[in-house]
Amino acid sequence: MSDSTANTDILIPSELLPRDGRFGSGPSKVRKEAVDALVARSADYLGTSHRQNTVKSVVGEVRSGLRQLFSIPEGYEVVLGNGGSTYFWDTAVFSLIANKSQHLSFGEFSAKFASSAKMAPFIQDPEVIKAEPGSRPEAVANDEIDLYAFTHNETSTGVFMDIIRPAGAKGLVAVDATSAAAGLTVEASQFDCYYFAPQKAFASDGGIWFALMSPAAIERVKEIKASGRYIPPALDLSIALDNSVLNQTYNTPALATIFLMNEQIKWMNENGGLPFSTGRSAQSSGIVYNWAIASDFATPFVKDPAMRSNVVATIDFDDNIDAASIAKVLRKNGIVDVEPYRKLGRNQLRIATFPAVDPSDVEALVASIDYVVSKF
Description:
With about 375 residues, the chain is an alpha/beta fold. It folds into 2 domains: about 240 residues, Aspartate Aminotransferase, domain 2 (3-Layer(aba) Sandwich), CATH 3.40.640.10; about 100 residues, Aspartate Aminotransferase, domain 1 (Alpha-Beta Complex), CATH 3.90.1150. Helix content is about 35%, strand content about 15%. The strands form 3 sheets. The protein has a 7-stranded mixed sheet with strand order 1-9-8-7-4-2-3, sandwiched between helices. The chain has a 3-stranded antiparallel sheet with strand order 10-11-12. Strand 5 and strand 6 form a beta hairpin. The N and C termini lie close together (about 10 Å). The relative contact order is 0.19. The mean pLDDT is about 95.
């Protein structure tokens, strides 16, 4: 059904609608309680120096909260810097890849880090192992590789991978966890650098990155710095590390972003930590997948259940049901940001099921979709 024939003026009954209609894959839903807490602190926190304890104490809470949430071993460090995960790819190229990296490429975002590494003139071309969107490749140990680049969750396609060190691999394991961190299970022993931004599972805004770094990763940063390689200061992990241990960033961060992230971390830890946050995502995504499997017009895009993400569910629709029209109707009724990833080009909806999303709202969402389709 094309946009021109679908009725997009449908009014969904209020009793079917979710209480909160935000299901975007980033920026994602921010909990009202976190916003209220920020408003309450606005007079003595917003608009103050990030070099003073008012802000540094909140940064310190974020760093200690992440240690608790991920059960970080002794010797690991929580590092942060401005720019977001996209910025971190270039940071890793300059400060973590000594000579050659291996990249698992299975969607838009996992491919971008590989592209950054390929353009760098001071390291060898990376080894790239690809899989078609909707599936994932496997890493292959290679003694030439000094950094393995994984993506915990491919936001564009709704495919995730378990984070496990390749058998026999000598290189570092760096994991893009932007849409996965706090929504998918991970063991710190399986990575050397687990990096992410707060605009997804951490229910805040973007523009800053965090990295959980092992002693081996920290040593790599120091070795590259000592080698004399030119590294722009804003991409220098040694500078970010030096500032992070002081609970600050090299340049001014967005204070509201840090505050909102801290509120989300506290909420997670107070309710049971990673088992709580990942459990909520698993419950919500299960609602979506079970609905699609039972539906006579929808199906999960990711065919292998073992590859289906618990934080980003991608659902294909039959050719006679236009997903774009469904998204338009939902948006008019206050349910937003379920459109598919623009470059994937499929007749589908992409539904974020991050921890902040209430599972009861997910149930209301799929009921609303059923109602809309019944009116087409």
